[in-house]
Task: structure prediction
Amino acid sequence: MKKIQILLGIAILGLLTSCLKDQEDTFDKPSAQRAEEAIAANYQLLAGAGNGWLMKYYPSPYRTYGGYNVFLKFTADGKVTAASDIDEPEASAESYYKITQSAGVVLSFDTYNEIFHKFSTPDPVLGSAGEGWGGDYDFEFISVSPEKIVLKGKRSGNYATMEPCKDDKWAEYITMVKGIEDDMNFPQYKMKVDTTEVSIVKSNRNFEMTYATATTDTTINVPFVVTDAGIEFYEPININNKEISGFKHVADTYDFPSTTDANIVLNGIVPPINSTLVNGLWACSMSNMGEFGMPLWNVIKTQVMPALGEQLAYFYFGKNGSYWGFTFNSSGYGGVIGFKYQLVGDDKVQLVYNAKGNQSNGDWYINPKNAAFFYMVAPFGCSTELAEDGSVVPVVRTFTLTCDNPKSPTWIQLADDDMPNNVIKVWDENLDPFND
Result:
């Protein structure tokens, strides 16, 4: 028995030795040399694309903001020029890049680029305070060929693809993409997959799709990038065993067929203006508060904020995930001031303060002993006078709504039915609360 065990041990040792030898023979060059050669080859490949590269880039670890087109032109001496549909079509910016070895071969945009670094700059208006959009500037090379490069963000873990540009008409492409995005932009959408009805709303370049299964309601987030052909998902989704990868742009229509199944169609919906209001997230600023609201906001700007030593980064109104009301950020302190709404007909809405909806720092900031933000929301649905116990008094206000474009409004105006001097305008864009 002992002899058999010894022989078996020798046999296993021989197998291990064989495996090790095979591994040693896999590479005929030291790892450092292989890395140097890969770096040199990647420099050559990047600089060799005469018209540059088109990157499909997704900032944020959760791809919250969707994807963006980024044009990049590299030179052999380490310079890179960038343009993107996050900016104006004709805009471009130059900086430097490098390729290094760091747990893989890594492409780094290591000096500030006014366009590329918009995705990663900690700007509280463009994303969240301290994080911005959480974008990458260091990318690991995953696969490389003259036709396509696949990168992986070191910070977000998101994949980015780069393909060589067919021509150097970057501005024309960006203009086209912006036009297609406008054509395909609706307040709400619906889609039918076999017998399953899917309701869809959009935030940035991210669809929130909700549909019923046999056991429960399911909601999925689907980030996408807009291309010259339409909408392309970050990765395919599957509903009822049907794969969907995106939708084709069709001009002058509300209906956009799936790129993978012509029987699946994204239908744009133009809902009543009050539905658009309550299902969106709208920026507020002092200059848009009207005759009644501007003096109240000015108290917060000139007295409260200096006393706190804080800066209000944003003040949004509407639906933010499961919260409804006002979402704000003051020098990194975020919160929600809760409101309730009631739709009236197609063009009216009733609003009222809802203390139970306050979240995070909402209670602290609305408190008159702290930041008195009840002054800022008073035009929408509370009194400027406090109750005897010092609490905020809800007031139901009824507003008539108008907008610039029912299909895709850039602003909605709320005119108080009972107070002619209380006319508010909210915007579908980023605004500085006190300076825009």
Notes: The CA atoms of residues 122 and 130 lie 5 Å apart. The first helix runs from residue 2 to 26.
